[in-house]
Structure formats: C-alpha cells, structure tokens
Amino acid sequence: MADLKGKVVPVPIEEEIKESYLNYAMSVIVSRALPDVRDGLKPVQRRILYAMYEMGLRHDRPFKKSGRIVGDVLGKYHPHGDQSIYDALVRLAQEFSMRYPMVIGQGNFGSIDGDPPAAMRYTEAKLHKIAEEMLRDINKETVDFVPNYDESLKEPAVLPAAVPYLLINGASGIAVGMATNIPPHNLGEVSRAIAAVIDNPEIPPKDLLRYVKGPDFPTGGIIFGKKGIRSAYLTGKGGVVVRARLSLETLRSGREAIVVTEIPYAVNKSSLLERVASLVRDKKIEGISEIRDESDRNGLRIVFELKRGVIPKVVINRLFSMTPLQTTFHVNALALVGGKPQTLTLKEIIQHFISHRKEVVTRRAQYDLRKAEERAHILEGLKIALDNIDEVIAIIKKSRTVDSARNNLMRRFGLSERQAQAILDMRLQKLTSLETRKIIEELEATLKLIEELKELLGSERKILEVVKNETLELAKGYGDERRTEIVAEEAEDLDIEDLIQKEDMVVLVSRDGLIKRMPVSAYRRQGRGGKGLMGGKLSGDDVVSHLFVASTHDYILFLSNEGKAYYLKVHEIPEGSRVSQGKSIRSLVQLSPDEQVSAVVSVETFEEEREVFMITAKGLAKRLPVPALSNARTRGVIAIGLEKGDYLVDAFLTEGKGEVMIVTRRGHGLRCKEEEFRSMGRAARGVTAVKLEPGDEVCGAVPVEEGKDLLLVTSGGYGKRVGFSQFTAHGRGTKGQIVYKVSARTGELAAVLSVEAKDDVMIVTAQGNIIKLAVKDISVLGRQAAGVKVVNLEKPDYVVSVDRVAREK
C-alpha cells in the first residue's frame, strides 16, 4: 500500500492568523461591504436586482413572495444566509432609507420608528421601474458575466446601471479597517453634473457644486452650512450638519408647541422620542410639558407642547444640542475602483460613472451592429431570391434533397450557407408584393442602422453624447424636487462649547499614555513641604509624565517626543476624578506605539500669528508658525524633524521677538534672543540652541518675561526661584551660566517654569501625587544655590512635572 502519511509543515501561529485574517478582510471589503463605483451596488444588492429581473418581476407584473426571491438569490448567487439577503431586499424597498427605492414592497417592510419588517413569508416584492433602468440592455453583452459561487451559473460582475446609483441612493457599510458612508442626492442635480463633466472634462471640481447643491435625504431635513458639503465633495470626507424641520404652532389651549415634520436621515423616531422624554424627566431640558407623536399615513408629526412663559428658542436650541434632532452626517466616499477601495471626490465618482456608461454604450452598439449586420446579410439573400424567384423555385424543384437545393442556390447566386438556408425557410406568403416590399424596406432600414452604429462607434464624442442624453432623459422621467433644504449659514447657537462652562482644567498625561482632565478647584492650596493629594491612581510602574492647565474652550496641542503635533479641544478630553486612571490618549489621538507626549501647548485659535518654540534633548531649537499646525487634528502632522536618538522635550507659544531661557538637567542655563532662531517649516530640524556637556541634556525652556522669576524644581523635591535679571544674554550655541547647583541630594533638574509671586503651581510626582503651592512660599535665591525643600517625597518617588495654575484674566 502507498504511504498515506502526510508531511507536517510547522507554521508560526502569528503568520497563519495574519494570512487568514487578511483573506477574511479582503473578502469583506471586496465581496460584501463596499459598493462598486460603476453601478454603486454591493454584491448582495446586485444579485437581488438581477435575480428579480431573471424572475420577470417587472414593475408592471404581479408581486412574488419575498421568500421566493430570497431563495432564488441564496441558491443561485449569494450563499451567505437568507437573513442578510432579506435585510438588503427590505432596505431597497424602504422609502425612508432609499432616496429612489429600487424595490416595490407589499406588506410590512419596517418603519422609521425602527419596527422590524414582517417575516419574508408574509411580504411580497417586485422591481421598481427605475430599477429596470439599472438592468437595461444587460442581455446585449454590455457587461461581463462571471461564474457564481459553485460555477454552475453566470452572474453579472456589474450592472449596466443607466442610473447613477452610488450618488442618488448613497451607500453605507463597515468593512475591516475601513467604512463607507455616502449620502443620497437628487437625481436631477446629479444628472446635470454628469452632463457638465461630459461637456467639459476639465471642469474644476468646485464648479460642480453649482449643479450638485448637497445631499438630498429621503427624510428631508435642513442642511446647515456649505463648508462640510464642500469638504466632502472636494476631498471625499466631510461632516454635513442636518437639522429636523420644525415650526411653532399655537394650540387651542393658548400654549405654544414645537412641531417637527421632518427628522434627520437615519434617525430612529421612536429612539428620538425616548431620548427627549429622558432629558425632560431628568430636567436637562426644561419647558416641555407634553410630548406627542401624531404621525400618520400623511406624514411625520411630533409635537412638543411647551409650558406657559417658556421661550421657545431656548428649548429649540437645547433640543438641537442634546438630541438627534440635529446630527452630523460624516461623509466618507469610499468605493471599489478596479476592485480596490479608494476615497473619491464628487468629480471622480462622476468620471467613473461616465467611463462605465461609455463602455456599456460602446458594447451595446457593437452588439446591435453585429446583429444588424447578421440581419442585413439574411435580408440581402432574401432580396436576391425575390428578384429571381422563378429561377429559385426551379432550382429547388429540380433538387433531390434539401442539402443539394442549398448548395445549388449557393453556387448559382453566390450566397452564403445562412442566406441559402433562409431562402429555403422562407414561407410562400413572403411572395406577395406587400411582404416583398416589407423585406426591401427592412433591408434599407437595417443598412441605415448599420451606418449609424458605425458612425457612433467611430466617434467617442458621439458615444458620450448618448451617455449624456440618456442620463438627462432618465432624470426627466424619474427626477423630482429636492427634499432637503440647504441653508448657507452655519448652524447657530449650537456649538457644544455654549453648553460647557468655561473652567480651568488640570490635564494629566502619564508615561504609559493615560490622559484625563480635572477642575483646578479639585485641589486646595497647601503649605511648602506638604505631601500633596493623590492626582491619579496609576497601575504598575506607570508615572505621571506631564501636567498642563487650560480652559475647557481652548485647543490643546500635544507635541510628541517623535516631533509630531496633535490637537483636541480641552473639553474633548475625558473628565476624571482625582483617583481615576484616565483614558488612553491613543483612543483620542493616533499616537504610534512608542510615541509619548513631550509638551502640551494651549491655543485659543489657529489663526493667531504667534509661533511655537520647540527644543529637543540634544539642544536643537526652532520656531514654527501656529497656522502651520491647523491640520494636525487627531491624526497628527510633523512639527519638527529629529536626528536619530534625539527627541522633543519642550515647547511653548511665543511672539518670536523676546528672549528664551534654556535650562539643562545638570543646572546650566542659556539666555538668548528668540530672533536667533528663525521661523522654519514643519519638517525642518532647527538649529543648535545650547552647547551641552557630555551626558547632559536639555530639561526645558521658558520665555523670559519681565517681572517674573525662573522657577527650578529638581527630581528630589528641591526648588527655588531666580530672577531673570541674574542672567546675561549670550549667543545661541554657547553653554550659558550656572542656574542651579545640583547634587546627589537634590537630584537633576526635573522642571523649569516662568512664574510670578502671586501664582500657584502644581507639582506632580512619579507616583501620581500632586501638590498645589503658592509661588511666594518658594524662596528667591542666587544662581548657584541648591534651593529649599518644596515637596516631601517618599523614595523611590520623584518629581516629574510642574505647571502654573492659570488665573482668570
């Protein structure tokens, strides 16, 4: 017997998992979650429409059970479960989900309240008339067909799609590591934009906004502002703010009521009402006495009855701010282009649609030409026979068999086999003068058609004109008025900051990347030498690496040791208690695995003309204009280029005209003019700021400010204040002067700060303790003094950060 034992090949589990997961991810991306840019459909939607077309479920035919449709799709094309197919079928029929529904449903297909549809055995469906335009000419070899999952049948790889489905109905789907979210649009607007691109392929993308005003949702609503629309159309990503449509009515009782008649797209009405009721119950929204849902078959109507004396605008603003009556539709125009996911602009989507339609029209014309030529060939044979009918009859009568008759005709008149066979198949009634005339007229018409088709195929411009005319014709037949109103002004009175009290916050960042904010009021001032309060419950050997104080309304710039900048609003940072650990900063900004926050800078606006002064551990520094970091956001941008082994240690805002004090760990300080550091681009490394001794590195840098002192705190808990006047300005690239006489007892310098006597400071230790001190309690000493004890430490604890508590202006 043959040896049946197989060979065992050891495979590392991480390699097997990686390969298997990548295969799964690609399957989800390409075969399930993302639409094809050409017909705008996901595979399950395409298969449903094609299966219904094959079943003959036209708009003017009887309905068939949804279960029958699902069974056909499941058995023939989509073996991924009946429920997923039925869910997709239901969505194609929902008028509140689809701007232009593709399926006509009969029975319970769900509601805007989130009610589930009836089981597929109870509902019926057939194709909508506009869906038939998606399948128009599919039998004319206009698209490629591929084998189905078991290779027993063929299915279309893409539909001919005379309708720009991807734009008019949008798409949403979550793949692996990516997602798509494309809003629906108005067919008329999209068709005019397609015509504009065909007429002028070089049309600037921004000019298309004259044709496509913005998304047009099936549920109506009001879009506020064009900034998000512009971003979405020009970059493929953007946030569109959508509000409910409401009005004020006076009821019979004399009270006023807020009446909602349209809600934002994809908002569940039932959940919306529950949310409002919960907020009213918790007294977070005051002034509403009763909530009623008066919706019926004529449309949506939600009534919020107000208490007497209540100002409606205040209640409306609270409703918009705290409930889904205002939402942001986050556009992410991701679709498959050539089988690969790609983020697309409005013009790119239109160009891909035109390219697809151009190919469909070309292939249709080639098919029609071939058929016309075949028919003309037959008609020419019949004409020859009719012109010589007596001789043809004589030849046929003399022939012994059909084959000999065919051969004799071919030989006598120079006919092809198909022409001769057509003559033999011709019925005697064709010999009447009327029927003869019809054959001649058909031949003339066919020859004219052939000429027209050849002319069409010979001109790309004419093919594009066909695409344009057919698209505009569809818009005329199926287009309707815009449902979603667009208001040019941005939404007012709804900035989340209006609901957030201005308050100074302590922002804590740990070495392991945990972040939180707490009110400054959570800490009471203590005397010099106190132990401090617990500032954060840290796990393992994690330590607090940075503390910063800023207003809840400020932007907070995070500058990492790798030289990248990120920003958040302070109120976006999760608030915690003194004993809470905080949230991972990586859930808020996209830091790399080894990246840590080195400096934090508070910025009121990115339009200000100030600059960020940055310095690295190896003593390189530069100035960078604040507007250069306006695109940092949570993904981050390069703020400073770094040499190998170097890292960013400090940064602060500056006007660029003063002086800066740079301090090293071993107690050297250099005072020099900021003008010696020229303003540079984001990727620049900077210039040498201070000459370092072997083993020394920069501790930090502060701007020199009149009337303030330099506060120095060591890792051992010692500190002092030194007047800036005790330091003379030197040129950059020098050692500077002694600022602190460090020793084994004091430890190296841990932090430097510019302070006033009336300031309070907060000192953070490695174990998370925080002490709040009055600066006036810290002695002013000479340059070479060792300082006084400012915080009692229990070893192995040490000081890691110091920051000034901000005062109200």
TrEMBL record:
Residues 440-470 form a coiled coil. It is found in: Cytoplasm. InterPro entries: GyrA, GyrA/parC_rep, Gyrase/topoIV_suA_C, Topo_IIA-like_dom_sf, Topo_IIA_A/C_ab, Topo_IIA_A_a_sf, Topo_IIA_dom_A, Type_II_DNA_Topoisomerases. A motif (GyrA-box) lies at residues 526-532. It is an enzyme of class 5 (isomerase). GO terms for molecular function: ATP binding; DNA binding; DNA negative supercoiling activity. GO terms for biological process: DNA topological change; DNA-templated DNA replication. The active site is at Y122. CDD domains: TOP4c. Its main location: cytoplasm. Heterotetramer composed of ParC and ParE. Heterotetramer, composed of two GyrA and two GyrB chains. In the heterotetramer, GyrA contains the active site tyrosine that forms a transient covalent intermediate with DNA, while GyrB binds cofactors and catalyzes ATP hydrolysis. HAMAP family: GyrA. Belongs to the type II topoisomerase GyrA/ParC subunit family. Few gyrases are as efficient as E.coli at forming negative supercoils. Not all organisms have 2 type II topoisomerases; in organisms with a single type II topoisomerase this enzyme also has to decatenate newly replicated chromosomes. This is DNA gyrase subunit A. It comes from Winmispira thermophila (strain ATCC 700085 / DSM 6578 / Z-1203) (Spirochaeta thermophila). The lineage of its organism: Bacteria, Pseudomonadati, Spirochaetota, Spirochaetia, Winmispirales.
